[in-house]
Q: What sequence folds into this?
């Protein structure tokens, strides 16, 4: 479902915005560094903290995300459904290595721990209408 | 009462979004471009570009739950306001002017991006959605992120 | 694709957008194809030298001028794999000498520590974010801020790619590129750099081995001299002691000889382990010898400086060597501006004749676009003696026999741009190649001989054993052949089908299967009233599946593919290995969507269609694949089947005996000779036409 042209928007050059909702119906908006491309029908978010987003998604798997292309500023709306978490494997390693690299450059080695790579199914994708 | 510091922050060069959900708990999000805080009455009027506002309007009218975030794009200082819909209507001329001012503030602040950054960004026409703030959360990444702010403890 | 567009977008806008996407994909594919070829050249350049500095220079030069990575560096790991030192760099203004990166720090350091390719395009954003969190944590008293010194390279790199260079479990170093622009590198860049990285890693490892081998050689020289002196002084005394020392001296000399042989790479790589264990003996082998000679090189190079001449020649040798290696040939020697190559050493090979012919054709085909001079080629097959020949410290793997001299003389009578082969060689090549007789000539030492020029591979349309000239296929569907060729070169340019097919002489097999499949599909579409299920099959996907259905052959040993003596269990194992290898290859070239169809095709062939029902695409592919396997000349199947026999065999498949199969019956109708009837007695006793 994800077209190749969305890939530059999934490199984390510009942050992404995601909205989740708890089982008791309160929406929650936050931004994240990167939505990771897994394959044509899946994306992943890194799970580092036990925050509101994490708690919401475990109750109610539906998420909407906006990803942004760092060069063209084109935005895309993604409807996602949480599928499963991976605590090891190539996807986890990729995220973990990125964390390790940046932490080592900012003197923060060992401070951040990647707990899992959360994999989501892509339910729909469309270009944002906001930009001409 | 919403503290002055926060009011000034919301009126500053911030990037903001509104989140809602429908009857089936499916969430939706949209850009907000421009906002006016009425500190005295704890209400905020946010200006949502019509081009992506449909789901937000529909959800708000269905269940009245609103989540509104503001973040400094460079400082990463951020807050999330949660509350209940008071009303919504098309934006008026004054509010359009607020949006222009907002755009100019953002462009001046984001020196690493070109002036044409928001060219072609259809923030107008927009819908003015007013909601009453019930909770404010600190959303700046780092220690205390996600904490509910005790507004009475902050200076007004 | 469930991509929604603005409700007001017109049909025209949609078409423009689609065309933009198509253009972009075509450009990406062209880039992919070109760059794969370029990488092959880079790798042969790297392999042409054992000098570390030169390898680093070639690699970084290629990074910049060929692949467009403006800022690049090669870091070498220290012995303990704690630090990476900048050994060479390009695109920087005065990078500090002795600059180093600790293993585990930054993209390059983590790529080294984890021995995994790493690519980032948002370094600035992430540093700002994490740095901000760190500062706030420090302000809140949670952590100490630790200092991190600046990394060598671009001061504010936004994108970086680090490829770890690992050879045999040892971390050699890291190949790194970076850019000041965010999101500068994509998956294709990562793939290309990884491929070059592998070449560079091997090149550096060889160079380092070379350096240590030179060290070792010097040590051995010293030991050798010392032992010699010792030997002399003791000669006057006890005889047994003297004999002992003599043996030690021989041992040292032999070890030195062996390691120097390794340095000079004077034998096919398979021979080296045998040499090390002293197991190499001379053998008699049936081989094919190829001599090449450049025409017009002397005239072309007159007036050039010597190093320019050598540079041109070495470029030719590098290119030719790579091509010869691809068809499993061994470059025995260079003679001036010519090459002598041997096919079928050091182990017996079933395909050495065709390998030589295909190599020569490939060289001649590409000569014009690569070099401004022409070439003559002479090929002969015969029995030779092969083994290490020459003085003990200068021996190389060589072949002796009349067959060698004859090949050399045949080259002399070859027409310009042609490929001349001996009469016996021509007889062996005739099933697959188009040959033209040359004038009868006197060949010194033999007498009068009519040699042949190999014009090219026989075209499918002209091969009456595969396509009957009176068939409906020949009458109505020949244009499909050109369509398949076009598809092959535009969509699958990265695959070298000829070298794949040369491994078991299935020449043009994939193209034939594609042509027959598509022709049958179109015939079925025009015949069936609603066009179903044939209307729903995508032509391009079918052609791709046909062309790639056995692409995994490249990973299987030719000896295994050509083994006549396999029993059915052995055949099953081979089929399974081929399927696994093909699936892996499909993933590597990004054609994953073909995997289910191809797995089902293998299931059909493994069970002769007894195992359930099969998709219509698979029926088409199976019919074409089995038919061509039967009718095309091969090694392991003895002589090919007649067309009518092959078609009857198709109708006898258990799959076809169970019920009427339109795919198979239409295929048979299409391919059969006009006046024939394919009759098969089914189990129930009725005749099927």
A:
């Amino acid at each position: 479902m994800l077209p190749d042209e969305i890939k530059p928007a999934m490199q984390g050059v510009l942050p992404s915005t995601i909205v989740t909702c708890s089982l008791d119906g309160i929406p929650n908006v936050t931004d994240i560094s990167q939505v990771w491309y897994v394959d044509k029908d899946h994306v992943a978010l890194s799970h580092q903290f036990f925050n509101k987003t994490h708690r919401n998604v475990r109750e109610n798997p539906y998420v909407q995300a906006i990803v942004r292309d760092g060069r063209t500023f084109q935005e895309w709306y993604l409807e996602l459904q949480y599928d499963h978490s991976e605590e090891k494997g190539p996807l986890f390693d990729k995220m973990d290595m990125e964390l390790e690299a940046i932490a080592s450059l900012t003197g923060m080695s060992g401070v951040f721990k990647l707990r899992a790579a959360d994999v989501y199914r892509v339910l729909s994708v469309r270009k944002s209408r906001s930009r001409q | 009462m919403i503290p002055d510091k926060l009011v000034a922050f919301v009126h500053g060069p911030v990037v903001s979004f509104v989140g809602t959900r429908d009857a089936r708990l499916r969430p939706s999000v949209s850009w907000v471009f421009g906002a006016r805080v009425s500190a005295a009455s704890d209400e905020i009027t946010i200006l949502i570009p019509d081009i992506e506002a449909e789901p937000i309007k529909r959800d708000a009218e269905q269940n009245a739950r609103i989540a509104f975030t503001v973040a400094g794009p460079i400082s990463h200082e951020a807050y999330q306001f949660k509350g209940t819909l008071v009303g919504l209507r098309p934006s008026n001329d004054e509010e359009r002017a607020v949006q222009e001012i907002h755009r100019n503030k953002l462009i001046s602040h984001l020196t690493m991006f070109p002036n044409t950054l928001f060219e072609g960004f259809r923030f107008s026409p927009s819908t003015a959605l007013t909601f009453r703030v019930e909770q404010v959360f600190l959303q700046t990444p780092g220690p205390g992120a996600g904490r509910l702010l005790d507004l009475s403890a902050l200076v007004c | 694709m469930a991509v929604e567009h603005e409700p007001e977008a017109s049909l025209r806008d949609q078409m423009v957008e689609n065309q933009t996407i198509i253009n972009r994909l075509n450009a990406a594919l062209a880039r992919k194809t070109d760059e794969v070829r370029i990488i092959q050249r880079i790798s042969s350049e790297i392999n042409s030298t054992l000098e570390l500095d030169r390898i680093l220079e070639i690699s970084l030069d290629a990074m910049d001028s060929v692949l467009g990575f403006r800022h690049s560096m090669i870091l070498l790991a220290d012995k303990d794999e704690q630090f990476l030192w900048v050994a060479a760099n390009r695109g920087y203004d005065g990078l500090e000498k002795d600059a180093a990166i600790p293993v585990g720090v930054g993209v390059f350091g983590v790529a080294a520590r984890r021995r995994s390719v790493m690519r980032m395009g948002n370094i600035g954003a992430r540093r700002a974010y994490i740095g901000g969190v760190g500062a706030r944590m420090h302000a809140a008293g949670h952590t100490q801020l630790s200092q991190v010194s600046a990394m060598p390279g671009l001061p504010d790199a936004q994108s970086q790619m680090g490829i770890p260079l690992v050879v045999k479990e040892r971390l050699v170093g890291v190949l790194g590129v970076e850019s000041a622009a965010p999101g500068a590198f994509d998956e294709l860049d990562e793939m290309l750099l990884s491929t070059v990285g592998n070449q560079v890693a091997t090149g550096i490892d060889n160079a380092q081995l070379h350096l240590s081998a030179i060290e070792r050689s010097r040590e051995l020289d010293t030991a050798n001299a010392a032992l010699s002196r010792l030997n002399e002084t003791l000669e006057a005394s006890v005889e047994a002691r003297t004999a002992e020392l003599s043996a030690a001296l021989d041992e040292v000399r032999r070890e030195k000889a062996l390691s120097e042989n390794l340095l000079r790479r004077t034998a096919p790589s398979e021979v080296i382990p045998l040499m090390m264990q002293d197991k190499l003996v001379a053998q008699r082998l049936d081989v094919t010898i190829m001599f090449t000679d450049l025409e017009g090189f002397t005239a072309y190079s007159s007036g050039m400086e010597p190093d320019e001449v050598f540079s041109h020649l070495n470029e030719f040798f590098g290119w030719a060597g790579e091509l010869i290696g691809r068809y499993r040939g061994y470059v025995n020697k260079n003679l001036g501006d010519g090459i002598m190559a041997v096919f079928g050493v050091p182990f017996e090979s079933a395909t050495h004749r065709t390998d030589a012919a295909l190599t020569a054709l490939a060289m001649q085909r590409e000569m014009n676009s690569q070099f401004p001079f022409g070439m003559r080629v002479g090929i002969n097959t015969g029995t030779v003696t092969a083994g290490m020949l020459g003085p003990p410290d200068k021996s190389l793997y060589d072949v002796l026999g009349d067959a060698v001299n004859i090949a050399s003389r045949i080259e002399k009578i070859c027409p310009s741009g042609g490929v001349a082969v001996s009469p016996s060689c021509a007889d062996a090549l005739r099933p697959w190649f188009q040959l033209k007789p040359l004038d009868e000539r006197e060949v010194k030492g033999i007498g009068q001989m009519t040699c042949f020029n190999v014009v090219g591979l026989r075209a499918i349309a002209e091969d009456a054993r595969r396509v009957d000239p009176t068939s409906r296929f020949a009458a109505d569907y020949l244009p499909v052949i050109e369509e398949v060729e076009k598809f092959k070169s535009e969509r699958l340019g990265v695959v070298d089908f000829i070298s794949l097919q040369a491994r078991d002489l299935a020449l043009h097999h994939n193209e034939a299967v594609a042509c027959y499949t598509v022709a049958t599909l179109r015939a079925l579409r025009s015949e069936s009233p609603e066009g179903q299920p044939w209307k729903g099959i995508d032509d391009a996907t079918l052609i791709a599946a046909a062309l790639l259905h056995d692409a995994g052959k490249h990973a299987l040993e030719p000896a295994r593919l050509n083994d006549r003596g396999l029993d059915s269990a052995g055949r099953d194992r081979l089929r399974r290995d081929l399927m696994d290898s093909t699936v892996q290859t499909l993933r590597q070239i990004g054609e994953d969507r073909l995997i289910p169809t191809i797995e089902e095709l293998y299931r059909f062939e493994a069970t002769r269609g007894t195992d359930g029902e099969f998709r219509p695409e698979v029926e088409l592919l199976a019919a074409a694949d089995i038919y061509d396997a039967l009718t095309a000349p091969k090694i392991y199947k003895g002589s090919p089947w007649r067309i009518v026999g092959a078609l009857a065999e198709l109708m006898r498949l258990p799959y076809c005996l169970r019920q009427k199969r339109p795919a198979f019956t239409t295929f048979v109708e299409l391919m059969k000779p006009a006046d024939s009837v394919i009759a098969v007695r089914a189990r129930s006793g009725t005749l099927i036409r």
In short: The mean pLDDT of chain A is 92. Chain A has one domain: 4-127. The helical segments of chain A are 52-59, 90-105. The two ends of chain A are 23 Å apart (CA to CA).
